[in-house]
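Technical annex B. To support the medicinal chemistry partners, we prepared a structural model of the target in complex with BIE, based solely on the information shown next.
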Amino acid sequence: MDQSKEQRILNSVSYNAVKGDPESVINCIDKYCSQYEWAMNVGDEKGTILDKVVEEADPSVALELGTYCGYSAIRIARLLKPNTRLLTIEFNPEFASIAKEIIEIAGLSEKVTILEGHSEDIIPQLKKKYEVETLDFVFLDHWKERYAPDTILLEECGLLRKGSILLADNIIYPGAPEFIKYIRSNKRFECTSYPSHLEYMKVEDAMEKAVKDPGAAAMLF
Ligand SMILES: O=C(c1ccccc1)c1ccc(O)c(O)c1[N+](=O)[O-]
Ligand SMILES: [Mg+2]
């Protein structure tokens, strides 16, 4: 049977990337997906925005919704300090399996835990089953119509604290209008838009950062 695009991305990383070198894996995926087959990795332009927000958040516990092949998990995990962790949720078993291998090649398996299943099922388990108190950073990059309900679910489960930072991909393309309506109308979030482009394309896109109760967090220090 023909291999999937995601398997071909893994083949390219396995053959071309330097084992244990996250930058090499990132560059290999970007080269493959810009020169051979488009894929829905966040890419280098929006990836640079992701990097800056992760550095701002400096998370002890980070959550990603939508692992795909592990590209953004590697971008996030490579910036995490010792004794910190990234949990990433993926519902597609093939994507989860490929991401596991690619994250292993990047040498980041110790920092990244892939949770296979639907976000709405896993989020309520994070506190008890995965020993999460609160989340310092959340990257939303899964089904766009899940951004808003999963943000509400994170709040209902007590997983967001004063100063928790959310970053959402694809605000323009494919778009997440329900999320934008919810988050920008919610006075407890301070929102910032970062104009960019769809990965590997000239198509307009953007990322949205939302900080929970920023003023309250600032008052603590
Ligand atoms: O929805 C798509 C999509 C739609 C149609 C075909 C391929 C992908 C998509 C496009 C760019 C993204 O950055 C992204 O995260 C997604 N996604 O599915 O989560
Ligand atoms: Mg995306």
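Notes passed to the chemistry partners:
The chain is about 45% helix and 20% strand.
The longest helix spans residues 43-57.
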